[in-house]
Amino acid sequence: MLNSYFKDEPGMYHDSIGVLGECSSAKRSKTSDFEESRTSLVNWTHLPDVVISEIFDNLNTPDRLNASSVCKHWRKNLYNKKWWKHITFTIEPDKINKARYFIAAFSPIVSHATIKLNTFSTECMEEFVSLIQILSDNPNLKTLIIEPTHCRFFEFSSVKIIKESLENDSSLITNSITKCLPKLNKFSIGCIEDLSNQVEHFLKILNDKHSNNLTVLGLASVKDEPGKCKKIALSPSLFKPFTGLEILSIDYDELCDEFLNNLEDALSLKRLVVHLHSVRPTHPGTSNETWKIFKETHPECEFRLTVIHAFKDVHNMHTKVLRKQMPLSHLKVFFCESVNISVLECLSQYYQETLRSLIWVDSLNQEGDTWAITTPFYETPDPFLLISWLCKKLEEIILYGYKYWEDNLIAVARLRGPQLHTLEIAEDDILFSNKNISPHDTCFKDIPLNLKRSWTPKKRSELHPVICNPTAGDSDEYLLPIVLADLH
User: Fold this and answer.
1) Torsions phi, psi of 449, nearest 5?
2) Which DSSP state fits 58?
3) What is the pLDDT of residues 163-216, one digit of tens each?
4) Which residues, 6 or more positions from 240, have their beta carbon under 8 angstroms from its beta carbon?
5) Which of 426, 427, 417, 406 is nearest to 448 (CA)?
6) Cβ proximity of 192 and 148 under 8 Å
7) How many CB atoms lie within 10 A of CB 212?
8) Residue 12 dihedral angles phi and psi, to the nearest 5°
9) Which H/E stretch holds residue 390?
10) CA atoms of 204 and 188, how far apart (whole Å)
11) Residue 4 backbone phi and psi in degrees, to 5
């Protein structure tokens, strides 16, 4: 049966599609002479394409796949663009043959393409170049979303793993994406640093050809070493023509009052995502007055701030970055190697009506309570308790890499109750005030009772390697899926 090729996952429109096998011609039926003469009047192998298409239209996905195994003629009619609008191309070393099949079969007809790409593999990069080139000639293409494993394309070029045509491949990628842009309604560079250097070029092409129809635009990047990157702010006027935007992501270098003012005509804007790696000395920042106007113009818009590898500037966020009038709904801080308590205190003071998610992540520290966020609750107010108490919409807290008191954790669960959909902390990071009492008699029972669902802290075996040890994994592999989800 044909759908035996589709056992990976039930969602055939995405990367679960297996390699479709070859079909033989229709087999001779074992019927009586009379039945055979009747059957010959309706030759199923030679039905007109329009009839087969009509049949396929009335079938669900599994039945359509089964029907396409009748013969090669029916199989050929399976590849109609109206049934393959959404495709996820997964380009991984262990799935390279499947990726090649997908590229050959679907890249010329797909309308909405998502590309999950292993950027550390030469073989995968070669297939990616081929895919982008074909997509650039696809007149149906409306969506191009890239979701890489790492924030760089050519991480191993210095070790000569990438072939000499590296520069040519890079140009092919840029040129092919440029050719796609005038057709797109949704576009994301996937936080890839190499592509972030071409953002100004991409924006100018989009401005000339397609700015009114663009609804999703992902231009934010992830930088491994922010201190070594060029900080070149784009002209805020480049964003003014995008009046149909619903979701926009940018780097903090672009965020300023003039940028916010240039979004005044994007009345459908629902989400503004900003990635902060560092704050250049000449950055103008934003003002409360401009954010107030922004909120009045975009009353439904969420502001999501993601801080990545900002080792120095995380200490000044509360004065240089945060503004009381920001409609801040999500704060994510990844691998900055410190917690800014003043930032946490600002959250409960400024964003009581908007804050929905707080994520603060570093690798686990082995030195006792060196990285304790706060002293026990009876000595000083815990900012997490204030956030849990005052921020009415808070539904997610994820904390890794910092010691936290059991009593405070229980209090967080009691304050938020079942409204707190996500509560994650490493078991190794919980500090117990009474070591004579088993945790199974305290927080392991009390927290599930208040959340009204099963709950346990994360064991080391459940954590990403980079959370357990900063040298045991790559931070990109952990954070990229989280930050890329902001565009969904």
Assistant:
1) -65, -40
2) T
3) 445 556 678 899 999 999 999 999 999 999 989 989 999 999 998 766 788 999
4) 262, 263, 265
5) 417
6) yes
7) 9
8) -70, -20
9) helix 383-390
10) 15
11) -70, -20
